[in-house]
Specification:
Layout: H1 2-24, H2 28-39, H3 48-64, E1 76-78, E2 82-83, H4 88-105, H5 108-124, H6 145-162, H7 167-179, H8 204-216, H9 222-234, H10 256-273, H11 276-291, E3 314-315, H12 316-333, H13 336-351, E4 368-369, E5 379-381, H14 382-399
Antiparallel strand pairs: 1-2, 1-5, 3-4
Helix pairs in contact: 3-14, 4-5, 4-6, 4-14, 5-6, 6-7, 6-8, 8-9, 8-10, 9-10, 10-11, 10-12, 11-12, 12-13, 12-14, 13-14
């Protein structure tokens, strides 16, 4: 017993030291990247397809080099500590991206990668149907609503692409989400132990997972549960499109990452229901985000209730997520403000991505720009790269290989303090 306690204390201390070193960039690689950002022009003159190919190749390397070597995708590469263990949640929603890219390219190896991810997720699914929160190295190992909803997207994509081998796991996960939902549409029983306490309106992104399951099995109440959550989330939206309780840690100054989550949940709910009220609510949030955007494509990583940037760094994950939503809303409304803003953001994020250098970072997207910023500091999270691929792919779908028609320039407000 004493030896176990000592071992626990040693591991806890080691983790705290690693976290401190990561926050402060205590490594040669981290300091080198800081200097490179200051001294060199970022990005390269490359096509969108070249960026997408490089990002997909990085996802493959993250799967191959995961610290848990299990078929999942490493949560991130850190310039201080290296490759992490696999992250079930984000592996789940990486799967639809990999399957789509396999279809577009005809690359059967991408399909094999997606199947490997799926088989790993099925193997770690809890008997209840739920999935754990956090990467494999994190504890406690407990069922979490949001993570289960993201993995549900991957399972649904697996059923569509590979057949009924993944139907039972999909059904178990979706049934668990329905069974654990509160009467008002909120999920309170199984929140993540790795985020702040309280209700989370960004769980609307988990509702999207239920909508994907409903497309496959429309008679099990999945869509109804999803829409209960969406309407609950909308009860926390104000007239300017702002959502309360929409952050991992700071609801007064939420990350664009979690704003992107709730906005995508609304857009997907609209596409599923064609309810005009939901579209109008999504437009309010999308228009609010426009106010925080600088003309050069910089979107601040945290935004306050007045849609003003409150930090000097960008959360590149959230920037890509919001760009995706702007493109989708342009397709629905024809409002060129959304298209032009999305293209500007995509170009900004591309300028932060290296197509040269070491394989651990080549084609990957940083948590923050600069890399020392306050989100996933000195790290390259797999979900940032996933959303980067999706944002650039929808840009090519909307605009094609040619430049979109020019539009009147947006009137931007200063985004940073």
């Amino acid at each position: 017993m004493a030896l176990n306690h000592i071992s626990y204390l040693v591991k806890s201390l080691d983790r705290r030291v690693s976290d401190w070193r990561c926050r402060h960039g205590i490594s040669v690689a981290a300091q080198r990247e800081i200097r490179r950002e200051r001294e060199q022009a970022t990005g390269s003159e490359a096509s969108i397809d070249e960026y997408v190919s490089a990002a997909l190749a990085w996802i493959g390397r993250a799967q191959d080099h995961s610290g848990s070597a299990d078929g999942g995708v490493a949560s991130q590469y850190c310039l201080v500590t290296g490759w992490s263990t696999s992250y079930p949640e984000t592996t789940g929603y990486i799967i639809p991206t990999v399957i789509r890219e396999a279809r577009l390219s005809g690359d059967v190896m991408l399909l094999e990668r997606a199947r490997k991810m799926l088989d790993w997720l099925v193997g770690i699914q809890m008997l209840s149907g739920a999935f754990q929160g956090g990467p494999m190295s994190d504890s406690p190992t407990v069922p979490v609503t949001f993570n289960t909803g993201q993995i549900l997207m991957g399972l649904a994509a697996g059923v569509t692409e590979f057949g009924d081998a993944y139907r039972k796991p999909m059904t178990l996960a979706a049934d668990w989400l329905v069974a654990t939902q509160d009467a008002d549409g909120c999920w309170r029983k199984h929140s993540s132990p790795f985020v702040g306490d309280g209700d989370k309106t960004y769980d609307a992104h988990a509702s999207w997972g239920l909508l994907e399951a409903a497309r496959i099995d429309p008679k099990r109440g999945y869509a109804e549960a999803a829409m209960r959550n969406v309407w609950w989330a909308l009860s926390h939206q104000n007239d300017e499109g702002w959502f309360a309780n929409c952050c991992l840690s700071d609801p007064l100054n939420p990350l664009t990452h979690t704003i992107g989550y709730v906005l995508r949940g609304l857009v997907e709910a609209y596409l599923f229901t064609r309810d005009e009220r939901i579209l109008q609510s999504a437009l309010k949030t999308a228009e609010g985000a426009l106010l925080a955007l600088r003309p050069d494509g910089f979107l601040p990583g945290r935004i306050d209730e007045a849609w003003r940037g409150v930090v000097s760094w960008s959360c590149l994950t959230g920037a890509a997520q919001i760009a995706i939503c702007w493109f989708m809303l342009f397709e629905e409304t024809g409002d060129v403000r959304f298209r032009d803003a999305a293209r500007t953001v995509n170009a900004y994020v591309r300028r932060t991505v290296r197509l040269d250098g070491p394989p651990e970072t080549r084609g990957a997207v940083k948590g923050s720009f600069p890399v020392s910023g306050g989100y996933m500091t000195f790290q390259y999270p797999n979900w940032a790269t996933k959303f980067f691929i999706d944002a650039n792919r929808i840009e090519t779908s909307v605009c094609g290989d040619q430049e979109c028609e020019s539009a009147a320039p947006l009137q931007y407000r200063a985004a940073c303090p």
